[in-house]
Amino acid sequence: MAEYTDLNRPLIGTRWRDGSTGKSYNVTNPYNQETIAEIVMADQGDVDEAYQTAKSVQEKWAQVLPQEKRMILEHAAEIMERRREELVKWLAVESGSSRLKAHVEIDFSISIIKEAATFPFRMNGSIVPSIVPGKENRIYRKPVGVVGVISPWNFPLYLSMRSIAPALGASNGVVVKPPVSTPITGGILIGKIFEEAGLPAGLFSVIIGANEEVGDPMVVHPIPGIISFTGSTRVGRMIGAKAGERLKRVALELGGNNVFIVLDDADLDRAARAAAFGKFMHQGQICMSINRMIVDRRVYEPFLEKLKERVSSLKVGDPLKKETDIGPLIKPSEVKRIQEMVEESKRQGAQAVLEGSARGTLMDPVILADVTNEMPIAKNEIFGPVAAVIPVDGEEEAIQVANDTSFGLSGSVHAGTIERGVRVAHRIETGMIHVNDQPVNDEPVIAFGGEKDSGLGRFGGEWALDEFTTVKWISVQEKERDYPFDPN
Rounded to 10 degrees, what is the CA torsion of 266, 411, 119, 74? Predict the structure, then answer.
């Protein structure tokens, strides 16, 4: 099986072609800064062509038999499994994913496609009793038509596929705009996979362009019925506002400031293992990554020792090497941003328990102790390999500190008993939280999403089906009805 070729041209409408601006963008490997592709960027006209084509093809797609849709989606999952090593390579060279992280991302993507393959047989309706004599109420689940997807660079394959596959399974057309830093894994490869699987040409398009050229047109175009966005809260607010002006639905998964709470009766070995993974997988560049570790002062020092021991063994380097645990950050400016937060937090009293060096886009893991919620390393989403550890006096203060943020995406609680962990979990203001685990969790049949500034809506399972469909009421008046205007 030959690897995919010609990955520098996106799929716009029914053709693999360059964008129309004539301006090119060099996609670089974050590890060594080598150019891996040159993409000619799209413009507003390309967005219009993609949406118009998707709309015309979607009308036919909606009539395709459910078993045929299911077969295409299942075939796409099979193709991803067969091409796993090819996808691992591209995730490494384009997004800096370690082999472990790349395999996890591919597993997630395959799982969500398999779940979406069940959607064609789950477009269920219902018959509802009426308060009117002789009337029958019928409720039908319908596709929204076309879905616009704007996805991020950190989990580019999965966070695009998480919306694309369910939207297709619910009989919609899709136009995706991946970020310019990961256009291949976030869009072009997905187009290749679905083309090989037999998806009708034009139903799915990939738009790669600068935000100032195609950002607003992706959102305000009249065709898409819903915009699915994963990214920063700042951008999510702007998308939500523009969509709201046009009464357009949005599904938003935004920033996080996720907590990892360690209570005084927790198993510290278990907690330290979970903390190391939940903080440092993919260099901490995951929306669900631990941002603040909140630890009861009675177990604070031993937890720090165990965490330091665990993290000190992690290997930093080339993401293509099997032994690498921590690969590069997406670009050098991210290293600079994170280091500035670390230094400012140290000036405010944080103590470095573990601190290495930074070279290029590689950054050794950092553990900061004696952090407070007011320090930049705790207030801001880190999105990097820095563990901020906050001491607290007891369960109540842990809950108070955890909730002292405008975000509420994911989190975790380590406790000596399940009952205590669940009791505390109920009081944390977040859309997802995990007892005696870490916060980086996603499952294809479970509701995924946040509260407060972390977003609107839910992905996964029946909740994704709700997001990408609408319902229609058709009533049938079986018996002649008496109206008040009728003569006596």
Answer: -70
